[in-house]
Amino acid sequence: MSNTSDVIIVGGGVIGNAAAYYLSKKGVSVTVLEGSADIGHGGSSRNGGGVRQSGRDPRELPLAMYGIQNLWPGLSGELGIDTEYTPKGNLRLGKTQAHLDILRKLTDRAIACGLDVRMIGYEEIKSINPYLSDEVIGASWCPTDGHANPLTATLGFYVNARRLGARFISGEKAVKLQKVKGRLRKVVAESGVYEAETVIVAAGLESRPLLNTVGIDVPMTGNLMECLVTEAQPYLFDQMLGAAEADFYGHQSKHGSFVFGGSSGFEGCTLDKSGLLENYEKTAPATCRGIMRYFPDLKRAKIIRTWAGFIDVCADGVPVLGNAEEVPGLVIACAFSGHGFGISPAVGYNLAELITTGKTPVDISALRYDRFKAKI
Amino acid sequence: MKRYDLIVVGAGPAGLSAAIEGAKRGLKTVIFDENEKPGGQLFKQIHKFFGSKEHRAKIRGFKIGEELLAEAAGLGVEVVLNAAVIGLYQEKEVVVRIGEAVRHYKGDAVIVATGATENAVYFEGWDLPGVIGAGAAQTMMNLHGVRPGEKVLMLGAGNVGLVVSFQLLQAGCEVVAVADAASAVGGYGVHAAKVARTGVSFYLSHTIIKAEGGDRVNAVTIAEVDERFQFIPGTEKRFEVDTVCLAVGLSPMCQLLKMAGCRVLEIPAKGGQVPLVGTRGETSADGIFAAGDVSGIEEASSAMIEGRIAGIAAAEYLGYAVNAELEAAIAENEAALSELRQGMFAPGRRGDMVEFTDEGIHVSVSLLKKGYVNDEEIARFTSASETPGFRPIIECTQNIPCNPCRDVCPRNCIKVESITALPRLNEYNACSGCGLCVASCPGQAIFLVNGDVGGGFANVTLPYEFLPLPKEGDRGVALGRDGQVVCEAWVSKAQISSAFDKTNLLTIKVPAEMAGKARFFKSKGAV
Amino acid sequence: MGAVERILEREFVPADDDGVVVCRCEEITKGEIRRAVHDGIFTMTEMRRYLRAGMGLCQGQTCAKNVKALMARELGVPPLELEHATARSPMRPVEMYVLANEEVAD
Amino acid sequence: MEKRIGEHPILGKPQKGKLVTFTFDGAAAQGYEGEPISAALAAAGVSVHRYTAKAHKPRGIFCAIGRCTDCVMVVDGEVNVRACVTPLRAGMDVKTQRGVSAV
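ok -> structure tokens follow
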């Protein structure tokens, strides 16, 4: 098989798969190189499933809003796979005055961007979710937010892109980008060399060393975060939940299980000697204690699995997205900082537009790769 | 954090043995086991073990469990039950659920002896209530005293399927058939023979097409399969049953080792995914050892030896034993292990079709196909004579590592040259008819025949592990090795003795010409 | 681990027993698993994520071996080529209030 | 046939706790304290522990050692309780599980 295509996408996560799908739909030939054995190996399969606009930085909020208005509602039907998209609102919870101050600031900022989000008090919180504990004194409420299943969404994009002719190679780690006559042309991987007009680097944390091979650096770091999931439980609620300090998030899935993320406070300094993305022994118990303070009724729900995954945290907390003009042919989509899943359809769609028309429906200029400036 | 020299996960034969060897050498040792009772699978194994004295042969599995537990307790090993190890984290941190809390422990060495889990096969209706694992049947009847059903079909003619079939019969259930997709009985022939002689039919090259039922299985259909395991239409056989038992192999339960980052390989001959281990049970992770079924499916006897080696290795690793002692202990245990791994059922010969015994005798094909040695084939191995006086008839036809019959005979009538050799009679020694060999044979393959007790009759003494025990004078029928009625029979003696350890001896009187055939007894009432 | 080209030459052929449940917990049938392979689901881990096969209460302890054999047959590769899914704690289901209750061992 | 083994040829008479009363789907039932709930139910002739969520198929004991989790029931209001490894206590309220609830 020829190793030349219109576009190479490095990274078979939800971003790469979404881009592959929307590009294939436009008739663009795509090759996706996934370094691990599994499609969606990284953060795409290791997140809490939030599809939200509230709480986002104004620089990426337009992408979130675009996706929720234009892409998520019809996605399951379009892909023929249940992404379990549930737009039943997002409660971002506060337990202290300090929390409420954070939430207020985020809310005001989002309202200025045109988002329907507001602060609500105890009574209204209880009417939306009666299972929350009395410790919660206030929240931001965005009724158009929600959640979806990152596993089926990622694989849904993959299956459909593949069906439309995209070529996928897993276990093929890209090690070097190479320019030919001033333009990025080749991707050298462990088992082969691939060529294309355009290369999208959407490899999460792995993007940094790869981009380094053409002299571009994205200031980001890995942070090992953990989630846990319970056995299926009777239906309780369908909102997405978050917390003012972003140290607790989760939802009840369509299947009935609760998926929650939390933290022990040791994030960033835990051991991972074997590189197996190991769970830290203190995190799941800490997460459970956190959950029970929000949902005392869930105390008897059984945890059946925990997992860990790196988030690619950008220096300024928002993704790097778009053309890197100094290396013609290079498109960067990384550093999603732990909130990439919710915007993945919009990112994929906009990348496809960017590559085929040179323009994007959403202004992504604030996410440029060269935006980073010293603070003084 | 609480720290032990040695943390052992799993209180089965391997784990207990490992803890014993560690504690003997001064290691502060704890064992965690998720079950309410220690002993692992030993406590479901109510048959007498094969092997030699050193391997605790002729002792029943659950008794071995009790012995190991007492030995461990005597050495100061803490055995914590109802303690599920939920994770083996970095730096050998063991997290255990005990009661309503999780506790964190550190082990300077950790031995994982988590054993195995049962395989399953799927077919239409396999999810119906009443379709259960063979281990489930054992648990229900041997631990909880409840019969899993009344009429049972057993899928699987390996040792588990055969042993559990016999246990079902002992519990008072009816076993309608033993089926297996393989073309030959995979377990010990003697295990099959003691099931077949009670009248259970064997269907080799057969597997289940479907189970039927509403809220519980009420029928099962099996059919013959060809060499490619495809059903042969027209060969279907339907049985009305309320229970189907699945005994289709075991898989090592190595998740904890995987979580700990130990290198794991997939080795079909060992039953699936197993940790990469060295001769001392050491895994690729420093200070973490594996022993027993978790590192490859074998018999409990082998698990005990592997456990001992790992326990000594952990002691050496922590400086409680000198290397020379370790090497000597390993050599000794390895010799024992290699002895156990000899014969027709040696791990290296798994799957081979063996045609001749080590003695050069053509093996019984009928045993492999139907579960019993037929009348024609038995003559190659033993024969009953129609003369007065006792004589043991040893229907042991496969080379398996086992020799209690030799050790137990007070008159040295029986010789077993190497441990896997077939037992032979020392013709010059007169048998006293004590019956110890009959009761001791773990395969229940020895019978005493007195070929002439007058009036044209002979006495056959057979092992009998069922209730009720027939009484002297009871009338009934004798069944042949194939479980078919061969003649009328009268009970002339029923012996119970503590020396027989619950294998009662039933002596039946049959016409002299039937002495070579009568191998089981059914009371008239039970026919 | 080598590079795997995600192409399957064979077409999906329905079978009589496609309706038989393979993963008991999540009630996933043989036909669903076989069809998923043709959708491009090539690994055990992906199968868990795609169909939830092996993701239920027992976490695949009952069905993993069978799912693996079934996938291998459909892919036309030896079962040894398929990797089992990762082992993750807790090894047994644990109630939240129990996991939350970390006792300092004395 | 009586489901309980009165006397076993090798194991003798089963060692049991005291006879206690519990409720199964609202009706009074008896079993021995400390034995698994599933043993008491099996002795009472109950095979169905639950009906599945998707196909509403009956399920019962399969592995009997807490691994396959097919035998889960609603016990004292808690769903997904593994009946094969949960000891019976006097007064327990045991219900057939349907999907992930008792109704």
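Chain B has three domains: 2-117+251-340, 120-248, 377-526.
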